[in-house]
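Ops channel
N.P.: pipeline sanity check, posting one input/output pair.
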């Protein structure tokens, strides 16, 4: 007896059409166009998640650099000083400190640059 794949095929298509909901024109209700667009969208989403991390890191560096420049210290000298002193704060925490707690950040800058 032959087993037909109607249920499996319908479930697979249903999943794709659910993901394609809200797309423009025929991309939401024609199988081939929906499949192509969903694949492309998922690929872009994957790349976007990686890009977001890159953008946040550059934002944190810009904020740290701006706060360091107020004390006449460059970002690279500040980070090198922290590494020499053994301070292991990540850039996210340093940026938060620079924005929310400027006083302590200035103390940290002077501590890292002091010989």
């Amino acid at each position: 007896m032959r087993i037909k794949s109607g249920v499996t095929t319908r479930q697979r298509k249903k999943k794709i059409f659910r993901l394609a909901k809200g797309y423009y024109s025929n991309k939401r209700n024609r199988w081939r166009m929906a499949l192509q667009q969903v694949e492309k969208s998922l690929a872009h989403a994957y790349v976007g998640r990686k890009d977001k991390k890159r953008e946040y890191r550059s934002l944190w560096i810009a904020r740290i650099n701006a706060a360091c420049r107020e004390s006449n210290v460059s970002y690279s000298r500040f980070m090198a000083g922290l590494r020499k002193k053994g301070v292991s704060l990540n850039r996210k925490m340093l940026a938060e400190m620079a924005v929310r707690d400027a006083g302590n950040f200035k103390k940290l800058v002077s501590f890292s640059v002091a010989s």
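N.P.: looks fine end to end. The radius of gyration is 26 Å.
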